[in-house]
Prior knowledge:
The chain has helices spanning 40-53, 73-86, 106-115, 133-148, 168-174, 191-194, 200-216, 224-235, 263-268, 274-279, 281-298, 303-306, 311-314, 333-341, 343-357, and strands at 9-14, 16-17, 36-37, 58-64, 91-98, 119-124, 152-159, 180-185, 250-253, 258-260, 272-273. The chain has a 9-stranded mixed β-sheet. It is an alpha/beta fold and 368 residues long. 42% of the residues lie in helices and 15% in strands. The chain has a single domain (9-357), classed as TIM Barrel (Alpha-Beta Barrel). Strand 9 (250-253) and strand 10 (258-260) form a beta hairpin. The mean pLDDT is 91. 37% of the residues are buried. The two termini are 31 Å apart. Helix 8 (224-235) crosses helix 14 (333-341) and helix 8 crosses helix 15. One iron/sulfur cluster binds next to helix 12, helix 13 and helix 14.
Amino acid sequence: MSVFDPTFNVIYVRVVQGCNLDCTHCFTLGNRDPIKVTEFELIEGYLKAIKENVDPQKATFYIHGGETFLAPLDFLAKVNRCIRETFPDTKIDIVPQTNLTYKVDDEFIQFIKDEYRSTIGVSWDADIRFTTINQEHRFFRNLRKLIDAGIKVHIAITAQRHLLRYDPITVAQMFDGVDSIDFELLTAFDDKSRDLKPNNVAWSEWLDKLTDYYQHNETSWCLPQVDLFTKSIRDNKIYDCKCNCCDQRTFTLNPDGTVGLCPDRTYIEPLATVESIQRDWASFEEKATEVITEKVVQSHLHEMCYSCEHYDVCGGNCEYDLFDDTEECPLSRKVVTRVRNNIETFSRLYDEKAKINLTELREDYHEQ
Ligand code: SF4
Ligand code: SF4
């Protein structure tokens, strides 16, 4: 039996090496890497190998970089065509990820409407992203243009210590009009990124204030991190992937033609190449099995999770090194307690907001 689960796959296609920014927490070299668009034949070969060997029933394709939109739009359209032609029987969703600091004009907006069902993933970070005020202004001008044009914008923000200097309600208002605001837990891989780690009590209080705002105000956005806990509590079931991607369903292609499982690790430590997965998928699968097994063996629950009242809905699904010596966990027990104590309200928000705004929960998901 294959180690890969074909019921739902997450497939990253990194279409550009290099970026116009150089964010502190980024696992790529940002603008220190020369801009290079991935060879189309590599993308084609990568997709075909996944089709032949996994044949997903459902799949989300994340179009990534570096900065995705440094690639020409006609190239991106060609990639989308290739995805649709390679996976004619798979229910697919294609979502581009971007930093939104380039020219957004009518052509761009029409492209997002036509090619990505009016949906875009946008990253923003407090103080570790923009080097000039002009970049920041451009970002928010572009964001407004997209929202005004009816594009569904999904914001991703890294949970890092500089964010905590911002008032959470101000952040909520900065993103008024978007469909979701999600928080990514920090991937600490060097001294610079480790230095960004927030104190878990301070982070938890910050997130709880935002969750309180979500609970008591009419917002355009939902909070996936909170909504997924609501789903777990409602269904009385632990769902994987609250803070890490599951290797058994995730594939990543780097612009240089190397291939691996989750995007962070694949950038640093790929497992194969497009040429090798086409020629010998079995060897790739063998290496993937080793990585997955090693993760299972090495993953151990933090002692806080053993006695946590939320273990039944969370499962302690959090990287061990994100815990600190405080009494809070990286996922915020305080927030989970709030959701549990107000489950009727959060359940209503889940039905009225999350199920409409979040691509993966929408009824019409995967209908291209
Ligand atoms: S915008 Fe994204 S890809 Fe570019 S440097 Fe920042 S985190 Fe990295
Ligand atoms: S301590 Fe945090 S990560 Fe652990 S089970 Fe509780 S809520 Fe989940």
